[in-house]
Amino acid sequence: QVQLVESGGGLVQAGGSLRLSCAASGSISRINAMGWYRQVPGKQRDLVARITGGGSTNYADSVKGRFTISADNAKNTVYLQMNSLKPEDTAVYYCYAERLVIGVRSDYWGQGTQVTVSS
């Protein structure tokens, strides 16, 4: 099992910045990627950013150029730096981890952290 603990959400004005953190613990040895999804009420959970163990990253088109995902492997922590925030970025942000064991993928989720961007 993998436990994920998020922090860093909050309320910010449009144009501002926030940094989310996600610390992983437990069976982390076979995590091959981590990232962030976000969800607003009544809609599906959408991928925001992902980073692999090798450092490859991908982003949703809506956040490219504004958000940056990074990882500190020594601390087993992933970060999401969010700049130039817009009201449409308001959502609950969930950290997730992909673990691959003998070809079987398991996903683990954090509890979610609220990000609210005021106009």
Distance between the amino and carboxyl termini: 40 Å
List how many beta strands DSSP finds.
11
Percent of residues in beta strands? over 45%
SS field, number of helical segments:
0
Q: Report Rg.
A: 14 Å
Structural class by SSE content = mainly beta
- Seen as an oligomer or otherwise, the chain set is single chain
**Overall pLDDT confidence:** 96
Low-confidence stretches: none
The share of residues in helices is under 10%
Q: What is the 3D form? A: globular
Tell me the major beta sheet: 7 strands, mixed
Order of helices and strands: EEEEEEEEEEE
Would you give an account of this structure?
This protein is mainly beta and 119 residues long. The protein contains no helices and eleven strands. The chain has strands at residues 2-7, 10-13, 18-26, 31-39, 46-52, 57-59, 67-72, 77-82, 91-101, 104-109, 113-118. The strands form two sheets. Strands 2, 4, 5, 6, 9, 10 and 11 form a seven-stranded mixed sheet that branches. Strands 1-3-8-7 form a four-stranded antiparallel sheet, with no helix packed on it.
Short description:
The chain has strands spanning 2-7, 10-13, 18-26, 31-39, 46-52, 57-59, 67-72, 77-82, 91-101, 104-109, 113-118. With 119 residues, it is an all-beta fold. It is globular and about 45 Å long.
Brief descriptors of the model:
globular, 119 residues, seven-stranded mixed sheet, 11 strands, single chain, mainly beta
Q: How is the secondary structure organized here?
A:
Blueprint: E1 2-7, E2 10-13, E3 18-26, E4 31-39, E5 46-52, E6 57-59, E7 67-72, E8 77-82, E9 91-101, E10 104-109, E11 113-118
